[in-house]
Design goal:
11 helices; eight-stranded mixed sheet; globular; single chain; alpha/beta; FAD/NAD(P)-binding domain; 373 residues; nine-stranded mixed sheet
Length: 373
């Protein structure tokens, strides 16, 4: 790429980065999106999106119409020993793969006028206060310059380390594992099945496929030596999971896996970088709203830049908007997580859902936002 100066660089081409890039380009801003992979590709993700962002996506022509995302209206919870409860989702949502959706949004961002640099790893980001711009160093040693940088690089990145973000010093006990499967399962249900040390979600996506994704334990993986053996020794103790794993037709040659998943609080602005999606804060998967938060945070960051003239105003507006919409939700998610991942507390959670619908609904309400349009 011969050009090396940009108005805005967005680092990371997930939902948050793609939405921000599309919205900024649509508003006439000069945007470069940098993504270390090339589309389409799979991500470890629950692939369920709360309807809180549905109106916005449709209004902006960012909701795919050439496929039929699964409509999700019910939530099912099972305990480690198989006890079960079910309730209606207050807002509901839809299921769609990141493999499909990310490429769709990437093409929308490019059509709006954004440019891209794919298969490119960002090594570090430095804010030059004297020049009032960012210096973005990429893997080949080149440096790109931008007035603003948006960090949408996910849960954990080299950039987090270069910025010396506090959570990078903490060891996380979690791993994430994802499959796509074909199975005879209810198409309108998102289910969360507990096992000792974690929980596994399943919901329908496009083309009759299902996403099967779980948060597990690094300690258990080391103890049993492999993911298949850990699944047989741990996940299969929940009879619902055993049935799913034994009956499903697995579509990947091997699962998608990530580690070092950290739910510690983060800051939405670091060294003048606006942090988006998981880079600003990771909601526990049991809440099922990480994708919606990513979409919404991308919109908020774009709005802050479009509607304000100077750096301080942009940062303050974005930080306040992020806190208003997301900080309480992430806090509730961290507190609710103790209700999952062991036999005793998962039995309590199922009992609570069966016999205290008011409280269960309140917990659900407090882990997602109101429709943004």
């Amino acid at each position: 790429m011969s050009k090396n100066e940009w108005d805005i660089i967005v680092i990371g081409g997930g939902l948050a980065g793609l939405i921000a890039a599309q919205q900024l380009a649509k508003a006439g801003r000069e945007v470069l999106l940098i993504e270390k992979k090339t589309y389409p590709f799979h991500r470890v993700c629950g692939e369920y999106i709360s309807n809180e962002v549905l109106g916005f996506l449709k209004q902006e022509s960012l909701f795919p119409t050439d496929i039929e995302p699964a409509e999700i209206t019910k939530f099912r919870l099972t305990s480690v020993d198989g006890q079960c409860a079910e309730m209606a989702l207050d807002l509901g949502g839809f299921g769609i793969s990141r493999y499909y959706l990310d490429e769709f949004l990437f093409q929308r961002a490019m059509s709006a006028g954004a440019e891209s640099l794919l298969q490119t790893q960002v090594e570090s980001v430095h804010f030059n206060s004297q020049e009032n711009h960012f210096e973005v160093k990429v893997q080949d040693g080149g440096i790109l310059y931008a007035k603003y940088v948006l960090g949408a690089f996910g849960k954990r990145s080299k950039i987090d380390k270069s910025l010396d973000r506090g959570f990078m010093k903490e060891k996380s006990p979690y791993i994430g594992v994802k499959y796509h499967v074909q199975i005879d399962y209810e198409p309108d249900v998102v289910a969360l099945h507990n096992f000792e040390g974690g929980y596994c979600g399943i919901n329908r996506i496009e083309d009759g496929k299902f996403n099967l994704c779980y948060l597990g334990s690094r300690v258990q993986l080391r103890a049993f030596g492999s993911i298949p053996e850990m699944e047989k020794q741990v996940l299969y103790k929940n009879p619902h999971l055993r049935k799913i794993f034994e009956e499903a037709d697995f579509l990947f040659e091997k699962p998608e896996v990530i580690n070092e998943i950290n739910f510690s609080p983060k800051s939405p602005v670091e060294n003048h970088i606006l942090m988006l999606g998981d880079a600003a804060g990771l909601i526990t998967p049991l809440c099922g709203n990480g994708m919606a938060i990513a979409v919404h945070s991308g919109k908020l960051a774009a709005d802050a830049i479009i509607q304000n003239k100077n750096r301080l105003a942009i940062e303050n507006v974005y930080a306040k908007a992020w806190a208003h919409h997301f900080s309480a939700r992430l806090w509730v998610g961290r507190r609710v997580q103790w209700l999952f991942g062991s036999q005793a507390v998962s039995n309590f959670s199922v009992h609570l859902m069966r016999h205290s619908r008011f409280l269960a609904n309140k917990i659900m309400e407090n882990t997602h936002g109101t429709p943004i349009i």
